[in-house]
Amino acid sequence: MTEKTMPLWEVFIRSRTGLSHRHCGSLHAPDAEMALQAARDVYTRRGEGLSIWVVPSSAITASDPQDKDALFEPTASKIYRHPTFYEVPEEVGHM
Amino acid sequence: MYAQALNVAEKAHADDPELRARFQARVDAEEKIEPNDWMPEGYRRTLVRQISQHAHSEIVGMLPEGNWITRAPSLKRKAALLAKVQDEGGHGLYLYSAAETLGVSREELVEQLLTGKAKYSSIFNYPTPSWADMGMIGWLVDGAAIMNQIPLCRCSYGPYARAMIRICKEESFHQRQGYEIVMTLAKGSPAQKKMAQDSLNRWWWPALMMFGPSDKDSQHSDQNMAWKIKRFSNDDLRQKFIDATVPQGHFLGLTFPDPDLRFNAATGHWEHGPIDWSEFNRVVRGEGPCNRERLKARQKAHDEGVWVREAALAHAEKRAARKAAAKIAAE
Amino acid sequence: METPLFTYTLRLADNALVLGHRLSEWCGHGPMLEEDLALANMALDLIGQARNLYTHAGAIEGKGRSEDDLSYLRDCPDWRNILLVERPRGDFAFTILRQFLYAAFMHPYFERLAASKDETLAAIAAKAVKEMAYHVRHTGEWVIRLGDGTEESAARLKEALDDLWPFTGEMFEVDGVEQALIDAGIAVDPAVIRPVWNGTIDHVFGEALLTRPRDGWMQTGGRRGEHSEHLGHLLSDLQFLQRTYPGATW
What we know:
The complex is a heterotrimer.
Chain A: E1 8-15, E2 22-28, H1 32-43, E3 49-56, H2 68-72
Antiparallel strand pairs in A: 1-2, 1-3
Chain B: H1 4-11, H2 17-28, H3 41-60, H4 62-66, H5 75-100, H6 106-114, H7 132-152, H8 158-186, H9 190-209, H10 221-226, H11 234-251, E1 262-264, E2 269-271, H12 277-285, H13 291-330
Antiparallel strand pairs in B: 1-2
Helix pairs in contact in B: 3-5, 5-8, 7-8, 7-9, 7-11
Chain C: H1 4-24, H2 33-61, H3 67-72, H4 83-86, H5 92-113, H6 119-147, H7 151-164, H8 176-183, H9 190-207, H10 230-238, H11 240-244
């Protein structure tokens, strides 16, 4: 007999440091509440987190690696988005 | 979370030399390969095999140590051992997750373990008849595992490398926990000291075998090195382990069960006697003291869990159906 | 002669250790990997509570007995845990339901014990209350899933309930030892816990489609040292090394 598969969930944890929720792994659980509890038991055993998100893996739409050039290359030429593009005289100090 | 349809589509040109060259260039440049990236079929297969073996080892590895959770000799030791064995379950889980990004489900992987199609580390086919074995497993087996695992934190496959980083971070207390147990025994009564020595005698050679066959006999090494799935040879890692471990044992006044063990001042390395690879092959083949027992224990847990998993899924379906019905009623 | 406060603290400690020990038996054998970790977490909570309570009991007694002396060197008649916690672990339904019945009692109990006039007990309770809140939540969700899951899971849960219910009465017992401590504002009166416990049980049982048995005859004795056959076997595991190598350091 082949068993029905248990849904896969992606786990995101916001740590004490105040940074955004960060993907930290995945797990299997029958539903959202159990996924949340499993995430607590699996991924915060050492006090890593203050907030957990769980998302069904099937709900995530990922970019296609074949589109990588089209999606991400163009930003490489937009150097005016970076602070070092602009000249500020040294006398003005740190800006 | 990774679109598995893409993986299937790409199998069609799995041997495209141009794609292969681009892939190798990325690996050479120390770029991480991610689940949906193009990869050679052999790379995917090797990773699934290696990561799932690793995961199975963590899960089967819970059994020999689990044997002492209810009999740990103090409450402090009991809590530490339970936490450690639980960690191993967690590590198995991280690794199954990493393997799943390659398009194989946990259910399939578990089935491969239970049917004997997949292997796990042979070390766990040895028994733990004494409490000293808890110390020896932490000190030697985890010590050897850490030697293997640290380079894997830089493995070319992203999800595997990330899982290993988490695992190595969590494992740092395991080896120290083990060494402390051995140390307490070695400094204890004559009976305790004997317990420690007897345990070292049983675990030393199997621990050395954990690094796998000698480089000259290892089948997959070159390709795995080129793919940066493996970074050091079996023999190099084994030597590193011996050099680190022997002084730790001598410090405790323990003797290693190898009459040929001696320090070579010229090379700065500890030289060891011949490893009995026929024993290794025998245990891998299934003729170890606990092979059948370990698999049966896993099978039993799996079978006894079927009704629980079914109930949880059935409830989730009922709940979803009720929610849908309520929504329709509200409209 | 045991003082009431020593006996009382020991009762709390023994409950926690024996139940933690039972939960720890699941490690490596859980129905799914995620749950294996969850059961171990609950076991670790209970063992941690027990350690703090034993240390406190040793201090109250003042004879220099450590947490390990108290847990590893007493025989059955000196154990003060309720019979509920020493039942063998059973199947997953039994384990989960017992944990739920116990946690649904201990959570509100520790909430009140956190205001105890004994400062150490109050501090231990303040930490434990958060742990028990999670046990109630986790096991409560499982009770609902097993009760309203498949026919088999519902039948197993019902069977577990029939087995366990007669052991719930002992949680609410008060004897002379405890009455004096309740009057002194040190111990918690379990009568106060009864309505809270009823509310939690009824709510979860309602969702789990589980009928609460009538309160009939109840098992008793553990708190006075009158135990079932099972505790001795548990102790022979727990105490094996300490008994075989007397006086050794581990």
